[in-house]
Amino acid sequence: MKTKTLNKVIVLSLITATTLQATNGDHLIGIGAKARGMGGAGIAMSHGAESALSNPALITQVEGNEISFGGTVFMPDIETTLNANPNALPPQDSHKSNADLSMIPEVSLATKVNENFYVGIGMWGTGGMGTDYSKDAGIEKSLGQGQFNNFDMVTNLQMMQFAIPLAYKVENFSIAVTPILMYGNLDINFKMPSRTDEGTVNNIGSGIAQDFGYGYNIGTTYDFSNGLTLGAVYKSAIEMNYDHTIKNAAQNFGLQMTDTLEQPAEIGVGIAYAMNQHTIAFDYKKIKWSDAKGYSDVLWEDQNVYAVGYQFAQDDWALRVGYNQADSAVVETKNPAINMFNLLGFPATAEKHYTVGGTYAVNEQLTVDLAYVYADKSTKTFDISQLKMGMDSITTEHSENSVSFQLNYTF
After folding, report:
1. Eight-state DSSP code of residue 335
2. Which CATH architecture has domain 3-410?
3. Quick one: which of 66, 146, 257, 307 could link to 39 by a disulfide (CB 3.0–4.6 Å)?
4. Does this model's pTM top 0.85?
5. 171 φ, ψ to 5°?
6. Distance of CA 402 to the CA centre of its chain
7. How far is CA 299 from CA 48, 170, 332, 339, 372, in A?
8. For range 285-308, the mean pLDDT
């Protein structure tokens, strides 16, 4: 194996690891337990204070004051296999990421100022990523055996948004804007073969990098007063720069990369219909990964996301089911190095999500929400034979489980 080729592949793998996590790309399918129980549908169906990011115009359905707080326990299961040339030994080198548990918090408040004006405030974990291959046998022990051990990578990207939705309602029409302050932090640690001392490895890592970015959401709804509601939302791109992380890793190999990862712009529309205790909601949104800095460099494709949910509600309880579908933003390309880093890092390949949830009213002021989301196993195999590393392809299996819990208090 040529050391120069291996070095480039390691860097590309690490860069991909910093950009991947969660479900629709690095986004959660929905923010808040109610939306997650409905398959992420929430552009035309109000979920109270938690609607601030889904469609801020829907906070106009809050009758007085409402506060919601809770979180999601996110449990991804990722396994990547390097499929070797038939003449190479061993034939496979398969490893699981040990970053299989994380907590994503959220808290939101919405209040009715008068008959026309509504305001809110909130803090939401919106996505992130994590991989941990440090508990493998170690790259030092495997360099002479033809194994790679995923380079003992440990990566951690976390993203949180702070927002103040401002909504205005006139009769059946609502419009809102939400200024957003986004916080993100990124840490990368890995090991790579030394360029000067064959058989040894170097530890690479610059510590945690942090940044704040700014953006906005615009949302609108129209209630036809017959159970039918239409909604639309636009979310701006938010540029984030994690200094001395990706760029510094790339410079170790003479590669010109940037530290920019831009959360992509997004546009969505929704429809909801309520009849007695039954409500059906459907959302469509397009996530513009191909235009986002960083993601476009690794040839992510735009995602068309479809979410459908059903709710049956009684006086003091409700049940929800949902489904969310979006083709993987990561696809096989003609560049084997891109194929390698898109699957070896922490691939955004989850596509089909099945959800269930419910609400129980403890009393007139306090309600409890629960939701469970299962992402079916997605298996992707990309060709990497042209890298001349003795491997024909790389295979990643990706599935997810998550549980969301939320308390809501009205006053």
Report:
1. -
2. Beta Barrel (2.40)
3. 307
4. yes
5. 55, -115
6. 13
7. 37, 43, 9, 10, 31
8. 92
